[in-house]
Write a structure and sequence with these properties.
119 residues
């Protein structure tokens, strides 16, 4: 039996998500992704923030919770710079490269090109 939206919002609220963010996450179908990423060890506040601000794309619910957790942990650990984090989000969400390893291989390649200017 599927989990009802009210129960999903309640679980998200238990993670610290405010009611409006929980509503957005549930309406987008991202509650299983967010809850799974937090269960995999990601920081709940960062996952909720990314779910609301960066995962408004069609198909974002197909993202693997473990990969989202790894990306959030990488972001928090400071192992990536701001531009690289932004590119990682583009790769992981926008282009559909769900593998953190694939994203980092690409990032290493482009970071070695000094002529590439990123905003």
């Amino acid at each position: 039996m599927p989990v009802l939206p009210a129960a999903q919002r309640e679980r998200l609220g238990g993670l610290g998500a405010d009611p409006s963010d929980a509503h957005i996450i549930v309406n987008r179908g991202l509650a299983p992704l967010v809850l799974g990423a937090v269960e995999a060890g990601a920081d709940a506040n960062r996952v909720v923030t990314h779910a609301v601000q960066n995962l408004a794309l069609k198909g974002a619910a197909l993202l693997v919770p473990d990969h989202l957790a790894s990306l959030v942990q990488m972001e928090i650990s400071g192992s990536s710079r701001r531009r690289r984090r932004r590119l990682a989000w583009v790769l992981v969400v926008g282009l559909g490269l769900w593998s953190q390893a694939a994203a980092w291989c690409w990032l290493v390649q482009i970071s070695q090109r000094r002529s590439l200017v990123l905003n």
